[in-house]
Amino acid sequence: MTLDWPEFDLTRLSGAGGTDGRGAVALSQNFHVASFHVASARSGPRSLQFAEFDVSRALVEPASFSSLLDKGIELRAGIMVPVLENDCLEVLACMLDVKQDIIRGMGAFLNGAERSRAEGLKSERDRRRFIACRGQLRQILASRLGISPSDVELEYGRLGKPRLSHRMPSRDLRFSVSRSGDVAVIALSTGREVGVDIEAVLPVPEADEIAALCFSASDYESYAALGPDDRLEGFFRRWTRLEAISKGLGCGLGHPSSSDDKDWVVRSFVPKTGYLGCVVVRK
User: How many CB atoms lie within 10 A of CB 28?
Assistant: First the structure.
């Protein structure tokens, strides 16, 4: 889930219409979706291989999900691994549960606002993961810009989307960050807006209700046509795409947008077994 600005929290979507009286889903002010502590009725999460979709068309499922079962890329704590590369696009993934001495080193890169945000997190695990994610983001951006990680300056859009400051050497470098559980992904693009989202593929009891509220008519129709064994993956394929586009736009889910879905090239990827990701790049 997103690192910097609010998204829907799937764990808060039970109950008709939310609590704001508008019949809409409430936005979470957390910076990642809480884990779903629900026992799986299946043998465990399944992973999917790379796939590409044109979002100007309804999302069409493969003939059989069993043909897509595959192992995700092996990730090591604190080491960024490319999971997707294309012209002007790179997606890297890493594990966030790193040793304390690495956390201290990465913490030295953070600015005052980032340290305050980390200190405001209630869980020690969440603080460590936030620092690991933000520290590695700074390292990656610094390596592209040829500066020190602590010298990377970010600024934020009206709704909080992060971008490089106008004082940085190259403003053509665009990025997007997402984390879920102990995994983070960073998408980099040159000259084109980019958005990325990852999710741990775990049961969502209210998935059908969320789909009815959030998916487009064509996506909901194709989702509803799936069999019970395929709905979990089908839900997350659509959800991650929706999140990634909203982050590429910088508007966040729940905010109106004038952009058409067909403005984006969409790629799904597997950063780690049991996780599903989606990255979008403006055409």
Answer: 20
